[in-house]
Amino acid sequence: MKAAILLAITLLLTSLAPAQAQQPAGSNESPLPQTPGYNWHRTDESLALLRDGRIVWQSNHRRGHGKPCLHPVGLADGTTLTWFRPADHPWHRAIWFTWKSINGLVYWDENAEGISPGTTEVLAVKTATDDDHSARLDLDLSFHPPGKSAVLTERRTIRFSPPQADGSYHINWQGTFTAGDQDVVLDRTPIPGQPGGVGHGGYAGMSVRMAEHTRGWKVVNSEGVAEAKTHGPNARWLLVTGKTPSGGPAAVAIFDHPKNLRHPSPWYVTKGMPYYSPAVLFNKPLTLPAGESLTLRYRILIRSGEMDARRVEKQWREFVKPGGQGE
């Protein structure tokens, strides 16, 4: 009963707060610099690119504080396109990667205190920034039952491109997962037609929870499938386009790399949230043998301005060619 009351209070408080005001715990405890142009803001647990004192993107990687994530992520004018801990799913962390379950233990859902049954632990973080306002983050993570040794580890590398003249940029995300001394079963909630399957089954992995104002944006994938029909089918990329609250056009595209397991990926798409994911486990779970590794690669493109399928296809081909940092 006490846990239920705490969760209700958390959901109420979250629903009352504007999406742009929500921040991961402990982030940006020092005032943001108001220097004109692009600048960096660092703390022991975050790295942010600012433009004219407003956050363009921010990585939150607080050691000992659970799942790392990216938020806010948005346009160069400060328009936030992601949503951190929304009321309907307070364990959603804007842009993040989480397995639904590992060896039967849930690492996705959280209680009112933000704690999952399975522990995701940030072990080490290294950040590097450049004068062109590009950046690289290297993280070592451990997935394990509380108080026990790791069953799965991850070496994560995130590269942020320099912003273009219009403020557009991309994020390259690569994670290499290595099983411990026993086989690891990565699983999700089953989908309809499977034992125990439900309509909301299939999610796990790379996840993008977008801001409330993007609910009416249009969705299309690399195969020309649009809107609700993009949920489930395989595709190389997904494009989400629409207007910002100020009326300007913007776009977010998510790319799946050809070297990824089960490429082209099935997609989990829920515009009503809005939530988008190249869901590698959508159709079936995966067993990673002891000591073996799995590498997944994605790109998230953030654009200020119009974006169509032809341009996205060109960008995807740039991503996957040798030297395109898809690697």
Q: What would your notes on this structure say?
A:
With 327 residues, the protein is mostly beta strands. It has one domain: Beta-galactosidase, Chain A, domain 5 (Distorted Sandwich). 8% of the residues lie in helices and 39% in strands. The chain has helices at 2-16, 309-320; strands at 38-43, 46-51, 54-60, 69-73, 95-98, 101-102, 105-106, 119-129, 135-144, 152-160, 169-179, 184-187, 205-209, 218-221, 234-235, 237-243, 249-256, 265-270, 275-278, 286-288, 293-304. The strands form 4 sheets. The chain has an 8-stranded antiparallel beta sheet with strand order 8-9-10-11-21-17-16-14, covered by helices on one side. Strand 18 (265-270) and strand 19 form a beta hairpin. The longest helix has 15 residues, at 2-16. The model is unreliable at 1-21 (pLDDT under 50).
Fill in the keyword field for this structure.
single chain; 327 residues; mainly beta; Beta-galactosidase, Chain A, domain 5; eight-stranded antiparallel sheet; five-stranded antiparallel sheet; globular
Q: Taking Cα atoms only, what radius of gyration do you get, to the nearest Å? A: 19 Å
Mean pLDDT rating:
91
CATH class, please? Answer: Mainly Beta
**Approximately what portion of the residues adopt beta-strand conformation?**
35-45%
Structural class: mainly beta
Instruction: Give start-end ranges of low-pLDDT stretches.
Output: 1-21
The end-to-end span amounts to 49 Å
Specify the overall morphology: globular
